Amino acid sequence: xxxxxxxxxxxxILALTLNFGFYVGEVDNPNHHNVYELFAVVVVNLIATVLKxxxxxxxxxxxxxxxxxxxxxxxxxxxxxxxxxxxxxxEMTPEVMVTIISLSGGxxxxxxxxxxxxxxxxxxxxx
Amino acid sequence: xxxxxxxIMRQMRAPIIILIIGYAISILGMALTxxxxxxxxxxxxxxxxxxxxxxxxxxxxxxxxIPYPLSNAQRSWALFTIYLTVISWFYSLGKxxxxxxDPTFREALKINHFKRQIERVPDTFILICGFGxxxxxxxxxxxxxxxxxxxxxxxxxxxQTLPLxxxxxxxxxxxGDASNPEDLITAGLQHPKCAAVIAAxxxxxxxxxxxxxxxxxxxxxxxxxxxxxxxxxxxxxxxxTDFVINPFDTFANIFAMAMHSPSLHLLYDWLTGVPNTDxxxxxxxxxxxxxxxxxxxxxxxxxxxxxxxxxxxxxIDPSEEKREQFLNRPENHGNxxxxxxxxxxxxxxxxxxxxxxxxxxxxDNDSNNLSIIMTARxxxxxxxxxxxxxxxxxxxxxxxxxxxxxxxxxxIIARKIRSLLVSPLMIAFLNKAKNxxxxxxxxxxSRILGVLGESVPNIxxxxxxxxxxxxxxxxxxxxxxxxxxxxxxxxxxxxxxxEAIPLMLxxxxxLLLMPSDDIALKSNDELLFCxxxxxxxxxxxxLNDIHSLNYIMTYEETHDSTIWxxxxxxxxxxxxxxxxxxxxxRIK
Lengths: 127, 588
Known about the structure:
heterodimer, A: 4 helices, elongated, B: Helix Hairpins, Rossmann fold, six-stranded parallel sheet
């Protein structure tokens, strides 16, 4: 067992599961989506991205690209949240929540692709 | 992704992750710790506030307790935050600094820099393997003629000092083992711009390896090898090495040339010298008794040349074995072989230095050679002395001895390779010149002196084709006649001549030495010129600028723009109509 692989897969799958956890629920209901969960998704995604740095293979490039996509989506979601709540000073409204959740939905797909690629790579190594 | 970025990214993984985790813990803790707002209500920092707080705390900027004074619970978490994040930063910075100092990383940076330098070379470059004395002399002469060179050398110190040296062009250098194919490829062996490889290391074995590698990995390029041992030489030729240069053979040939025809030797010396240095004086080698000290590769080569000219020779060498071999060969019967070193007066006197005309000090030890020269000069001050100079740093000593000819292996090789690379026509010219009588060489020399004056001329070739002589080709296609002499006219002042001499004309594989001025040029001709750099520039104008050519040929002015052309045509037609009939033929 390779410890590096365990850590690597752990963070990638954790990024996907946390992202999913944040995403599920009614799309316009702020009570169904926790800000702490979004924070966790961002942090775990950041770590997963950094773990993919410096791999010169084609697969490594694809993995890094998907992670970067997820990060862009999640950063946009957090910025929308911060802008509305902290800068404009409004309460969270269903319309804003929809934007945030759809952005995080995009990140979810990117994370999903990332995990699929990971599975493909692993199964290729088995053969 | 390049190797450098990849290395940085890989090395930076751990520090960045530590920073992310440190920040994440601090921010989360800050957002979860209860505080009080200005009205005394329970208040939690938002993630935005927490991120702001941690950011200015971690970077030790410290704006204070924003937006409300912190509660004790928040302060205790802030304490933890400070230590956690500041330590993470220290760790990351330390990692970055150690990465910059990492030898692998530095090596990668250097290779990257080298590759970018190669990419910046505008046309083609020549790869020099080994930057010893030969490599150095070559690089300086080639760059002097605007030929780009790239250097691979095993000694890191030489590569480090390379950028500090004063060459005319930037010479990219890389540290590497030239006998290792990987290193040669890194140095640009397979690069499309690589035109030739010169194996100029001091070891024949490494040179052989370089030649094989180059011919296998890039069969199209020209490979030039330095070699001092005969077996290696034939081995190099066996797989198609283009040129193998043996400094001793080369020198022996030059020596023979100097012996038979001093003026031809002088011509050779001038045309293959480093441009813009002073012209050398002729050497006259006298007939009579010669002494050779040291019967190695050098001495033997010169002995053969002296033997061919029926000159009486006495050889001095400490080896008994060589004496046996020497005396066993029937052609040597007229000559003596004395066992000895040559730097003691006794041996020299026995060898007959008193009445000898020339002495060759050809041992492979510079101190011995110097000692031989000094001792012999004391006995016979009129001796003609040929000195073998082995180590570059003894140069001052050898010039102080005032030896008539000093043979420096690296200089000989550099000179030969230079003439090979500067122009293939040059070699053909020198070969053809060898068969001419001495008067021819004398005339040529006086012509060069008369036109060019005191310094070694530049050499350049002209292909009469569309790339190199646009205007000339266009005009030739119109059926007009342009002669060699026209090229020598100054495009600014057509009555004046530029300081250049046509040395040879090559047409349909036929070579013509010193073409006269009235030969009409044809397309695809190749011409070899020598002259000043300014003359070469002036000639480029004549060749490529239609206005300059028209001016020289006293043709009518042509115009580039359509409107002007129409206007002049109109004016001409009008003139013609007004002119009396009989004069019409004269126009044009």
